[in-house]
Amino acid sequence: MDANSRKSLEIAKSQTLIREEWIPHLETAAREAGTRIMEIHQQGAQAEFKNDGSPVTEADRAAEEVILSALNQMAPEIPVVSEENAESHHLDPPEIFFLVDPLDGTKEFLRPDGQGSFTVNIALIEKMEPVLGVIFAPALDRMFHGFKGGGSVEKSPGREGPIQVRQLPESGSRAVASRSHRNEETNRWLEAHQIRDTVSIGSSLKFCLVACGEADVYPRFGPTMEWDTAAGDAILRAAGGLTTHPDGSVFRYGKAGYRNSSFIAYGQPDRWEPKASV
Question: Does residue 85 contact residue 56 with C-beta atoms inside 8 Å?
């Protein structure tokens, strides 16, 4: 191994160690944000509506305050792009930055039958790649994290330990799809790929279900924002999966306006068509 290769390996090991050291701090922040969310949920949250028509509540803002304070203490040198901080949306994407959605699945949060499928999302982006993700679903008490080079873990009652994507079952694949945004294009894709059954659920939990082997694929045809997907994408990739555009090209972050186009999140990317390219 030459000197440059040794240096690259040392840098990679150092980056992995830093990410691993951050995980407990990020999980604490996510759990504290989740506590604030549930307090407001139990009181009966009222929604306002942003310019794009999406709902926002006191819980979104309270959770964001907790997370931004924690990130500022942990890594003040790293910029943060957060859903409820509109000024951050105009930031030119730096090489390294955090992406935060303090309450993903606000519609599920507001619905009496929302199934608890709302989450706190925290992700780290490096060179357009999601390299670390933490997701907490406070109503379900399910915590997930994953980071490049370190695998993915679930920390939930009765389910604590490493997770990974599963091999496609011979009996047929299971998909997970958006509860609030499922459309005809999604339905056509599901029919074309002969999916055995489909679970509809809100928020970034869809990525987590693929990452832990409870589902095999998550197709999304329609726009989302990067803070909706980055944490779940990082967890999925660290668990052995991959998120791509429908043509198979890998999904990147730090795009114009932090906007996403259609994507498909695979547990076993090489088992589907088109082949996902890395």
Answer: no
Each residue of 111-137: b (16+ CB within 10 Å) or e? eeebbbbbbbbbbbbbeebbbbbbbbb
For domain 3-161, give its CATH number from 3.30.540.10, 3.10.450.320, 1.10.3720.10, 3.20.70.20: 3.30.540.10
* 37/108 Cα distance (integer angstroms): 13
Of the candidates 54, 57, 55, 34, the one whose C-alpha atom is nearest the C-alpha of residue 45 is 57
- Please say whether the beta carbons of 147 and 169 come within 8 A: no
Q: Which residue has the tokens 């695979």?
A: 266
Fold designation for 174-271:
D-Maltodextrin-Binding Protein; domain 2 (3.40.190)
Judging by beta carbons within 10 Å of its beta carbon (0-12, 13-18, 19+), is residue 92 exposed, middle or buried?
exposed
Tell me the domain boundaries of the chain: 3-161, 174-271
- On the question of a common fold for 3-161 and 174-271, the answer reads no
pLDDT (tens place) for every residue of the chain, 278 residues total: 454 444 433 444 446 556 789 999 999 999 999 999 999 888 876 766 666 656 668 889 999 999 999 999 999 999 999 988 878 888 788 899 999 999 998 888 887 655 789 999 999 999 999 999 999 999 999 999 999 999 999 999 999 999 999 999 888 899 999 877 788 899 899 888 889 999 999 899 999 999 999 999 999 999 999 999 999 999 999 999 999 999 999 899 999 999 999 999 999 988 886 544 44
